[in-house]
């Protein structure tokens, strides 16, 4: 059974490419965040997952009910979008009535300046990695020095005990000789 004709829909499109322009392989899922009721037709629309597989160009096109149709409750509602490919995100969108075709690039969240500022360049990453390697080498040296100090302390304790034993043995020797 098809959706009722009075239910307003929109065509959502999108194209995903990598940094050099190659099409991305994967899919995009859309899940309404609630069960919807078409009040005119007294029809329940279940919030099942709609999956669109990206074509050879990394593109998709899907027809979805708008999120603010006056004939449905609750309204407005939203769709959870999951990009199912390496580096994909999960975010929510709304599809308002009267918008015609919509491109997901106009709805997906961009990385904020604050988040982007947290990214590091390859040069910065390599510098941090170099410092970490140097720090790990220093920790290894400190651990070795600590082990040597502990071994020296044990040796000193053993030497002191041996000296004490030698002194006692020397005193006992003199006592036996009658001195």
Description of the molecule:
With 179 residues, the protein is α+β, with helices and mostly antiparallel strands. The strands form three sheets. A four-stranded antiparallel β-sheet has the order 5-2-8-9, with no helix packed on it. Strand 3 and strand 4 form a beta hairpin. The chain starts with 8 loop residues before the first strand and ends with a helix.
Give the low-pLDDT segments. Answer: none
The major β-sheet equals:
4 strands, antiparallel
Assess the beta-strand content as a share of residues.
15-25%
How many helices does DSSP assign?
2
List the helices and strands and how they pair.
Layout: E1 9-15, E2 27-32, E3 36-38, E4 43-45, E5 50-53, E6 59-65, E7 72-73, E8 79-84, E9 90-93, E10 102-103, H1 113-117, H2 122-177
Parallel strand pairs: 1-10
Antiparallel strand pairs: 1-6, 2-5, 2-8, 3-4, 3-7, 8-9
Quick rundown:
The chain has two helices and ten strands, in the order E-E-E-E-E-E-E-E-E-E-H-H. The protein is of the alpha+beta class. Strand 8 (79-84) and strand 9 form a beta hairpin.
Q: Which descriptors apply to this entry?
A:
rod-shaped, alpha+beta, 179 residues, three-stranded mixed beta sheet, 2 helices, four-stranded antiparallel beta sheet
């Amino acid at each position: 059974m098809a959706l009722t004709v009075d239910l307003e829909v929109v065509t959502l499109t999108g194209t995903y490419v990598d940094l050099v322009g190659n099409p991305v392989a994967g899919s995009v899922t859309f899940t309404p965040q609630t069960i919807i009721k078409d009040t005119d037709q007294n029809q329940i629309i279940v919030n099942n997952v709609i999956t669109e597989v990206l074509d050879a160009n990394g593109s998709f096109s899907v027809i979805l009910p708008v999120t603010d149709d006056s004939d449905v409750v609750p309204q407005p509602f939203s769709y959870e979008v999951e990009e199912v490919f390496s580096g994909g995100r999960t975010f929510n969108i709304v599809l308002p009535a009267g918008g015609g075709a919509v491109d997901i690039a106009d709805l997906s969240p961009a990385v904020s300046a604050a988040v982007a500022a947290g990214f590091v360049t390859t040069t910065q990453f390599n510098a941090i990695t170099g410092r970490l390697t140097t720090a790990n080498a220093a920790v290894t040296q400190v651990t070795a020095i600590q082990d040597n100090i502990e071994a020296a302390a044990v040796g000193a304790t053993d030497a002191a005990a041996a000296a004490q034993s030698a002194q006692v043995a020397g005193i006992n020797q003199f006592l036996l000789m009658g001195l």
